[in-house]
Design a protein that fits this description.
Elements: H1 11-24, H2 28-43, H3 70-84, H4 91-98, H5 101-112, H6 136-141, E1 143-144, E2 147-148
Antiparallel strand pairs: 1-2
Helix pairs in contact: 1-2, 1-3, 2-3
Length: 156
């Protein structure tokens, strides 16, 4: 039996990582090149069609002509990661890494709790909910000469 535990990293993910680095370095031309490489693949990809041959959707995916400034580049890259990696489990970690998880998630909860009662009383606490608590047994077992090596994450 062969193990199925593989960590896959999509090439589009790598390109968007590089675009993000370029944007943070204010190299907007390079950032746009990498984002557009992902967008052009999407643009030229297969179109899902109904049985009668008509397209199931009429998406207009075009490359960015350029990024006007660093903030625009960040927004474009974040949007591209959101749509390119949808349902792959990266979104929360991206929001945490960018430092915007609290704003985005609390805005979502405020909007959706009108329709989903299980969201009543739910909120994202910045500085706490980015990380899970470390089990106390791991903190206790991970000590050297009685001094704990691990420290509990903030808020727990």
């Amino acid at each position: 039996m062969v193990s199925a535990n593989f960590a896959f990293i999509r090439f589009a993910d790598v390109l968007l990582w590089r675009a993000e680095v370029a944007a943070e370095e204010n190299d907007l031309v390079t950032a746009a090149e990498y984002v557009n490489q992902v967008r052009n693949r999407s643009k030229n990809g297969c179109v899902v069609r109904f049985d009668d041959g008509t397209p199931a959707a009429n998406y207009k995916v075009e490359p960015y002509p350029s990024f006007a400034d660093q903030e625009y580049a960040r927004k474009a890259i974040r949007f591209e990661r959101r749509i390119e990696l949808a349902l792959e489990g990266d979104r929360f970690y991206d929001l945490v890494r960018w430092g915007i998880a609290g704003d985005i998630l609390n805005t979502y909860v405020a909007s959706e709790k009108r329709f989903r009662s299980y969201l009543n009383g739910v909120s994202f606490t910045k500085g706490k909910n980015e990380y899970m608590p470390i089990p106390q047994t791991q903190i206790n077992n991970g000590s050297i000469d009685g001094v704990p090596v691990l420290q509990q994450n903030p808020g727990y």
